[in-house]
What does this fold into?
Amino acid sequence: GFARLVQIDPDAATIVGRLLHEHRVIGEAGRQLHERLLELQSDAVMPRGLVEEAAATYLVYYRHHLAREEGELLPRIARQFSAQDWDAVQAGLDAIDDPLFGEHVDERFRELSRQISREASATG
It folds into this structure.
């Protein structure tokens, strides 16, 4: 979806690049939180602050990222994407298992597409 948006709207490249970088940062923050939680599960003794810090870091990054996607990227996609663009994105998603959302990612993105379409129609 990101690559298709940049093809249609080259000015989106900066936003997309920032979001892709944020995906990597969030992945690392999530990995660190997961490690802290596994350590707790194995009865490791650690200061409570380490777990709280890892959780807070992950949540702050993730919330900021979602706000950027919802505020900058999704409105741009709603303006630029045609039905054919959504079909092409869907075809690509069918072949991917998303590590965050699992095997049902296609239905989540279909619902997101429907929501964006509804909002674009209501504001258009």
